[in-house]
Amino acid sequence: MAKASTALIVLIGLAPLLAGAAPQDRTTPSGLPVPRYVSLKFADVNARAGPGDDSRLLWVYKTKGLPVQVVAETDEWRRICDPEGGLAWVHKRTTDGRRTVMRLAPQPLPIRDAPRPNAHIGAYLQGRALADLDRCDKGWCKLKAGGASGWTPAAEVWGVTEAPQCR
């Protein structure tokens, strides 16, 4: 009888695999890492004091594509940090997995043809402007904005640092 009990326990432990589900360590309701970056999907997004429509409205974001960092989450809500350091809760339906970055400094940022400090400058990202993030590699990020594409130092844009941006 001991062999049958052991076999049953093994089969129960394999149930998720047999059902086609991959085993994973889900530390968040979405199964995605926190912190992580997303962007705002709409031009009007309510920022709330807590995770719920009944929570106090703090402000309304007015920038579609704004990069934000998810620092906590529930099944339906995401606590985000914005480029100004604001913390608020937004509904998950108002966020998009597409990555964007923002140039926080007021000065234009050169966008270069290659990830090198002396590479040809093909365009500039204006201060306080947004750009689509293609990828980052070895301290450089490839951006797309206004029909231009190129490389800029990762430290010059907000939305790529792995560490939590709000405390």
Topology, pairings included?
Layout: H1 2-18, E1 36-40, E2 45-48, E3 57-61, E4 67-73, E5 77-81, E6 87-91, E7 95-96, E8 100-102, E9 109-112, E10 121-125, E11 130-137, E12 140-145, E13 148-153
Give an overview in words.
The termini are far apart. The chain folds into two domains: 36-98, SH3 Domains (SH3 type barrels), CATH 2.30.30; 101-156, SH3 Domains (SH3 type barrels), CATH 2.30.30.40. A five-stranded antiparallel beta sheet has the order 6-5-4-1-7, with no helix packed on it. Helices cover 10% and strands 39% of the residues. It has one helix at residues 2-18, and strands spanning 36-40, 45-48, 57-61, 67-73, 77-81, 87-91, 95-96, 100-102, 109-112, 121-125, 130-137, 140-145, 148-153. The protein is elongated and about 50 Å long. It is mainly β and 167 residues long.
Which terms summarize this structure?
mainly beta, 167 residues, 2 domains, SH3 type barrels, 5-stranded antiparallel β-sheet, 13 strands
Instruction: Show unreliable segments.
Output: 1-25
Largest sheet: 5 strands, antiparallel
Query: The CATH topology of the largest domain, please?
Result: SH3 type barrels
How far apart, in Å, are the first and last alpha carbons?
56 Å
* Count of helix runs: 1
CATH homologous superfamily title of the largest domain? SH3 Domains
CA radius of gyration is: 21 Å
Q: What proportion strand?
A: 35-45%
The CATH architecture of the largest domain can be named as: Roll
| Count of folded domains | 2
Q: What's the overall geometry?
A: elongated
Order of helices and strands: HEEEEEEEEEEEEE
Oligomer: single chain
Task: Give the structural class.
Answer: mainly beta
The chain-level mean pLDDT equals 88
| Helix content class | 10-25%
What is the CATH first-level class name of the largest domain? Mainly Beta
